Amino acid sequence: MTMTNSEASVEVVSNRLTSVFLPESARVMGVPTPRIHTPLNDLPSRGHELIDLASSMGIEMMEWQKFALIHSHKYLPDGRYATPLNLIMCARQNGKSFLMQLRILGGLFLWDEPLQIGSAHRLNTSVEQFRQLVTTIESHEFLSKQVSRIRWTNGAQEIEIKGSSGINRFMVKAGGSAARGSSPTTLHLDEIREMKDMDSFASLRYTLMAAKNPMTMAYTTQGDSHSIVLKQLRDRGIAAANGAADDIGFFEWSAPTDEITLENAAHANPGLGITIHENNLRSVFNDPRDVVLTEVLNREVQTLSGIFAPEQWNACLDEKAVLNEDELTWLGLDLSPDRRFAALCGAQKRGDGEFVIKLLHTWENSVSLDDKLIANETAAYCRKYPIEHLAYSKRTSGNVAARLVPAGIPIFDMDSDYPQSCDELLSAVNSKRLRHSGQSELTIQMLSAVQLRRGDGGWVIGRRVSGSAVCASVAAALCTHFATRAETEFDILVG
Length: 495
Known about the structure:
Layout: H1 5-10, E1 36-37, H2 47-56, H3 63-72, E2 85-89, H4 96-110, E3 115-120, H5 123-138, H6 141-144, E4 147-151, E5 158-163, E6 166-174, E7 186-190, H7 198-205, E8 215-220, H8 228-241, E9 248-252, H9 262-265, H10 278-282, H11 289-295, H12 310-315, E10 329-335, E11 341-349, E12 355-364, H13 371-384, E13 387-392, H14 394-404, E14 411-413, H15 418-430, E15 434-435, H16 440-448, E16 451-453, E17 459-461, H17 471-483
Parallel strand pairs: 2-8, 2-9, 3-6, 3-7, 7-8, 10-13, 12-15, 13-14
Antiparallel strand pairs: 1-9, 4-5, 5-6, 10-11, 11-12, 16-17
């Protein structure tokens, strides 16, 4: 993944910090200013009050944290925040959680905010943040003595203090609809990369409509193609950084490129050399590449929860993997649930238990695909190869398959066997029994496939949850079911 022009145009070149506490060999320091950020201004900031609060607690904020607090809390002459929505992005373990804690403490103890809500996609994430916050309060007497009540009721954790104008509260909730019925002043959204739809985000944001001076603070590490909310907010942030009119505050610490080096990682880890030792980063550089890109370099990847590991899929590459027109063939056809994408794959066995998969055809229509067109073009492949079965799902491809029956094409409904076929495909990839020629579209869709867990403990390739077209991977699974079928009843030799 390379740096986009929009990113490059707003990249901030920053001097690195130096430290007298580290040996000369360990002088790679985190970059304290974000690589990408929205325009800065000379407005006053309430962030200084938060920095002073931390100092009164005996905590010296890192320079990057001060930067984020100051520039996200600028206010206009009427007292309202200049950026009522702020997105702060950096790699893990750099101190985002404490930023969130400190902002909550400011709302409770400094600014008399009647209600703050902390939310994460998973309740246990919100609860852990709550525990850390309570521990911080109880560790400082001047804070704890102001607390009226701490509630630990599951799903309704809450802190109450006596403010100058009434009761100030902070509560944690989970999920997009968690705040409905409440009227908070400030929202704290942790790891918004986990939020998969804008409805969840909107249901939270709209609870602020009656607030006199609303604020939404979002904190996250980079996500993947399924991080719908993060992607939209980040796109807004980058556009604003390039001059678009928007009241979003956007601050991203990220590596300029996908190169896995300490120097590159320093841009995504502003705490490097302070709270993070460089050896700790080096120790994870050989972890799965997509994980390192997101968690360490704060770079976007296609998917974080992909079924098929890139290294395993690439190990199945065979440039000579072709389908022969005179060998028994199985075809797999899949249409996406929204009927905008479709794919046809073919499979043939070859010696030593191996088989070949090839993507034969894809279809795409921004509105809806034409069943008749797909059927006619699929029929051409059925005549080209000696097929035993055309595998399909009655739920998604039933209309197309029905058009093939009068032509004498043998179709096979795979709905009941679909979970098994997905398992067979994964096993074939991991064991290198599957061979492919490196088709780019097939590779993209295979690596975009995401597991959808079933109630019985099994899983399938999730067409909807994958976030992008995966028809080719589903079609590959359908024909893999037959290509991995035992040759005889005695396929396994015993003794």
